[in-house]
Amino acid sequence: GEFESPWDVAVDSMENVYVADTFNNRVQKFTLRGQFVGLWGTDGSDKGQFKYPSAIALDPNEDVLVVDTGNNRVQKFTSDGTFHHSWGSRGTGNSQFIQPWGIFVDSRGYIYVADSGNNRIQAFRKHRGILYFIFGEKQAPEETTPASKTPVQTVMPPAITPALTQTPSPVETTPAMTPTESPTVEIPTESPTEEPSPGVTKTQENF
User: Fold this and answer.
1) Strands of 53-58's sheet, edge to edge?
2) How far is residue 47 from each of residues 59, 71, 122, measured CA to CA in Å?
3) 74 exposed, middle or buried (CB, 10 Å; 0-12, 13-18, 19+)?
4) If DSSP codes are grouped into helix, strand and coil, which group holds residue 202?
5) pTM score, two decimals?
6) Using CA atoms, how far apart are residues 202 and 195, in angstroms rounded to an integer?
7) pLDDT tens readout for residues 121-169
8) First to last CA, the chain
9) Whole-angstrom Cα distance, residue 79 to residue 16?
């Protein structure tokens, strides 16, 4: 009943809960109230072993499909954990995977696997993983690069305009000098008015 990074869960018609206990490399089965029923799986690449099982689903027969991400395959089990069969290997061809991460089963029994490393979805028939069709491809990087350049160009002009608004500030300093105020003091004119008075007093002393 203990987990380490469980990533997915599925519930059957009998309300049994199947948990992909990813970092413990196993599947655990519980009742709807959380009572432990059983488990299967160990770390490895043999039948019934896992390398980071990341997704889990049930087919119309309520067999358990487990995405075995590290082993690049899908494994099928009965509801009690008995190994049924598996398909997939690492690669880019049909029915091959590179780190598949998700799985879904529709009402007709077709199995859809998210083939993450190959940037595609593969769909399989319910009988032994026979490929039905593939869709998806990697997005071209050229579509994203122009969008990343345009914000840089639009930000540049607003950054220049605040610098232009600061240039009128030196013009305001020219009235602060007020060169007209210094001549109004007329310090030299006061000294000649005071000089004749001593001259007058000297003439009176001669008389």
Assistant:
1) 53-58, 64-68, 73-77, 83-87
2) 19, 11, 22
3) buried
4) helix
5) 0.67
6) 12
7) 999 997 778 898 898 887 776 654 444 444 434 333 344 334 433 444 4
8) 134
9) 9
